[in-house]
């Protein structure tokens, strides 16, 4: 017989512990082997804030969906009510249209009903019913060129012709009367227009005459007033000119009074627009001061020229020293560059020998994929 192994509580606990350790190992491996979380870490506050934002966004979306669903239910109910109303209105309009058709648009009231009458054959009379000479059903009823209603049609045409002639005579009489009335009204209008034009022309000539007389009187009065004003202005201007000439002749400007140019701010100050110039004593003082200023300015220019010559000499000596120092610096830089190039060549030779040594002696054992696969397989 086959032996069956029955698991007891201890075996089940050990299996649960192994499964728990395996899950913990998997979670630990996912945390440790994740380079980003291992090096940077996780921002718990930011993640919690994201969770809160997601939850708030989900709640807001659910609220919007609920409101939208309620609005859709309201709109659906309103649409059902409106659709029922529209259906009832259409049914009422159809009933009214059918009632109107039954009352006022019956088929027998149409003009072409005689063409579509299903009982036209029952109602139709024989072809020669209007003739006084009826024939049997098997006889020929009608012949080509036969006119059975000739007499009646001829009578109707004569009556119609007389009616047309009478109507034309009446229309001509009415037109002639209308023409005469129109001519009489036109002549009366022309006569009244001519009388009114003559009256208006007479009134216009009278008004123009009166306006001309009034304009003449106004121009005469205006000319007299302008003449009087011109005379007054002329007399006033002559008086003003005489007064101005007298004032100018007796003014301090023409008399050149030196006292009027003195200022109240000091004895050595003068009023600019009244000042007439300096006297002989003041001119002598002015010329003497001007000569002293010229001598002082000449001394300042000589001193400035001397200082400029000294500065030029100093600048040239500095430029020569700077040029000499630049030559020395360039010579030193060339020597340093030559020495640095020799050192770099020596270092390059040493580096090549070192690389050759590492490549031939140290790094001759190249690792395989099996060597790299033994790392990062467990978290312990």
Automatic annotation (TrEMBL):
* Ranges in coiled-coil conformation: 44-71, 165-252
Q: Where in the cell is it found?
A: Cytoplasm, Cytoskeleton, Flagellum axoneme
Mainly resides where?
cytoplasm
- Bias (Basic and acidic residues) ranges: 8-21
What Pfam families has UniProt attached to this entry?
A: RIB43A
In residue numbers, the region (Disordered) covers 1-21
Question: Which keywords are on file for this protein?
Answer: Cell projection, Cilium, Coiled coil, Cytoplasm, Cytoskeleton, Flagellum
Family, similarity comment? Belongs to the RIB43A family.
Outline the subunit composition. Answer: Microtubule inner protein component of sperm flagellar doublet microtubules.
The protein in question is named RIB43A-like with coiled-coils protein 2
